[in-house]
Amino acid sequence: MAMLLNSVRSSPVSPARALQYAARSLSTTTQLHAQAQAKSKKSLGRPGVKNIVLVEGVRTPFLLSGTAYADLMPHDLARAALQGLLHKTSLPKDAVDYIIYGTVIQEVKTSNVAREAALGAGFSDKIPAHTVTMACISSNQAMTSAVGLIAAGQCDAVVAGGVEFMSDVPIRHSRKMRKTMLSLNKAKTLGQRLSLIGSIRMAHLAPELPAVAEFSTAETMGHSADRLAAAFGVSRLEQDEFALRSHTLAKKAQDEGLLEDVVSFKVPGRDIVSKDNGIRPSSMEQMSKLKPAFVKPHGTVTAANSSFLTDGASAVLIMSEEKALAMGYKPKAYLRDFVYVSQDPKDQLLLGPGEGRLNMNDIDVFEFHEAFAGQIMANLKAMDSDWFAQTYMGRKAKVGTPPMDKFNLWGGSLSLGHPFGATGCRLVTTVAHRLKKEGGQFGLVAACAAGGQGHGMLVEAYPQ
């Protein structure tokens, strides 16, 4: 705790500033919070403010990296998600105003994967498309960018999505080798070329491998999750129990056909893939046998209570309500308020959800991104701590924890998988589907991301 306190005092983004950011949620007002607190169950729509809706959301099956998608490229998965969205909505391919995709580890051959995937899916080449990156909340950013375009009157219909492909990531030559190769390309004489070739040493041939680590601290998320769990007193047992819960609930949802956002994908040269393959309910006994994955030998984060490297893509159709109804669609949900927050990435890398500060009264459905079981449990403990609220959030009392009977009831990233750039759309689409299934009205999405950032979004069910 002392470590967290000291880091916040020296953090470039103070808790007070983070609170200001949270207060700037696009359409949230004091009046709206009062409505929620009063449990009025009235819509959060406001006269004169354009309603923006989620019409549909889909995703490819999320697969463990190195399995059925291993020979593809990122744009193949993104294209499949877009085609799945077109098929499910019967959307004319020229009816979209803009396409935005999120991704984290970019394939150099398709740096603007949004454009390549859109063209491959058959969208009109007149539709602009761009790619965004914001670590694990990249598709969240794609969606809120779409909301912004519609709110500003620039667009009426936007497709947003995300993709991540961990089966094949860019591996670079060392910097010295790259410099030599670039110089060779510019060399004009045989002597210059021979001199450059002669300067190459064995050490220059060592490749640079990508790492899921913070550039500013060189620390992996797993190390951060381990320290966060220790700071909040989250035990290995609690983490394993939560991970087992995630897999058990995901398996139940999968068996009952609740994961209706998944669209089948015919992998070239392979069979049709129709479901996530990382859902593997185990036992506490089996999980307890695993050794720490990051902080050895006494860490508590293991392969079993962490999200796994995943390949997958997602896509959602976002429209103004007026446009959606004019085209004959029945929207799934209103996209209401959203907020981004940021804090010190050293000791608070994964505390984004706990700092989101969206009011939880009247929330019927909670969908939090499960990067690590320890990260989720630490956030829940932070939300249930008066000390944390007073020290970091400028509040007199704790926010309180979400009821577990409303929390990630169809599994989460620990079990379903976590393609970095695609998870945000899965979260929002799941909220919409759960609200319909469970008869709720308001849903809250929260996710942490590399760089010590976090995102929260308030979703409202569309009247049935």
Automatic annotation (TrEMBL):
<comment type="subunit">
    <text>Heterotetramer of 2 alpha/HADHA and 2 beta/HADHB subunits; forms the mitochondrial trifunctional enzyme. Also purified as higher order heterooligomers including a 4 alpha/HADHA and 4 beta/HADHB heterooligomer which physiological significance remains unclear. The mitochondrial trifunctional enzyme interacts with MTLN. Interacts with RSAD2/viperin.</text>
</comment>
<dbReference type="GO" id="GO:0005741">
    <property type="term" value="C:mitochondrial outer membrane"/>
</dbReference>
<keyword id="KW-0012">Acyltransferase</keyword>
<dbReference type="GO" id="GO:0050633">
    <property type="term" value="F:acetyl-CoA C-myristoyltransferase activity"/>
</dbReference>
<keyword id="KW-0472">Membrane</keyword>
<dbReference type="GO" id="GO:0006635">
    <property type="term" value="P:fatty acid beta-oxidation"/>
</dbReference>
<keyword id="KW-0007">Acetylation</keyword>
<dbReference type="InterPro" id="IPR016039">
    <property type="entry name" value="Thiolase-like"/>
</dbReference>
<keyword id="KW-0276">Fatty acid metabolism</keyword>
<keyword id="KW-0809">Transit peptide</keyword>
<dbReference type="InterPro" id="IPR020616">
    <property type="entry name" value="Thiolase_N"/>
</dbReference>
<keyword id="KW-0999">Mitochondrion inner membrane</keyword>
<protein>
    <recommendedName>
        <fullName>Trifunctional enzyme subunit beta, mitochondrial</fullName>
        <ecNumber>2.3.1.155</ecNumber>
        <ecNumber>2.3.1.16</ecNumber>
    </recommendedName>
</protein>
<comment type="similarity">
    <text>Belongs to the thiolase-like superfamily. Thiolase family.</text>
</comment>
<dbReference type="InterPro" id="IPR020615">
    <property type="entry name" value="Thiolase_acyl_enz_int_AS"/>
</dbReference>
<dbReference type="GO" id="GO:0016507">
    <property type="term" value="C:mitochondrial fatty acid beta-oxidation multienzyme complex"/>
</dbReference>
<comment type="function">
    <text>Mitochondrial trifunctional enzyme catalyzes the last three of the four reactions of the mitochondrial beta-oxidation pathway. The mitochondrial beta-oxidation pathway is the major energy-producing process in tissues and is performed through four consecutive reactions breaking down fatty acids into acetyl-CoA. Among the enzymes involved in this pathway, the trifunctional enzyme exhibits specificity for long-chain fatty acids.</text>
</comment>
<keyword id="KW-0808">Transferase</keyword>
<keyword id="KW-0256">Endoplasmic reticulum</keyword>
<keyword id="KW-0443">Lipid metabolism</keyword>
<comment type="pathway">
    <text>Lipid metabolism; fatty acid beta-oxidation.</text>
</comment>
<keyword id="KW-0496">Mitochondrion</keyword>
<dbReference type="GO" id="GO:0005743">
    <property type="term" value="C:mitochondrial inner membrane"/>
</dbReference>
<dbReference type="GO" id="GO:0003988">
    <property type="term" value="F:acetyl-CoA C-acyltransferase activity"/>
</dbReference>
<feature type="domain" description="Thiolase N-terminal">
    <location>
        <begin position="52"/>
        <end position="322"/>
    </location>
</feature>
<feature type="domain" description="Thiolase C-terminal">
    <location>
        <begin position="330"/>
        <end position="460"/>
    </location>
</feature>
<dbReference type="GO" id="GO:0005783">
    <property type="term" value="C:endoplasmic reticulum"/>
</dbReference>
<dbReference type="Pfam" id="PF02803">
    <property type="entry name" value="Thiolase_C"/>
</dbReference>
<dbReference type="Pfam" id="PF00108">
    <property type="entry name" value="Thiolase_N"/>
</dbReference>
<dbReference type="InterPro" id="IPR020610">
    <property type="entry name" value="Thiolase_AS"/>
</dbReference>
<dbReference type="InterPro" id="IPR020617">
    <property type="entry name" value="Thiolase_C"/>
</dbReference>
<dbReference type="InterPro" id="IPR020613">
    <property type="entry name" value="Thiolase_CS"/>
</dbReference>
<dbReference type="InterPro" id="IPR002155">
    <property type="entry name" value="Thiolase"/>
</dbReference>
<keyword id="KW-1000">Mitochondrion outer membrane</keyword>
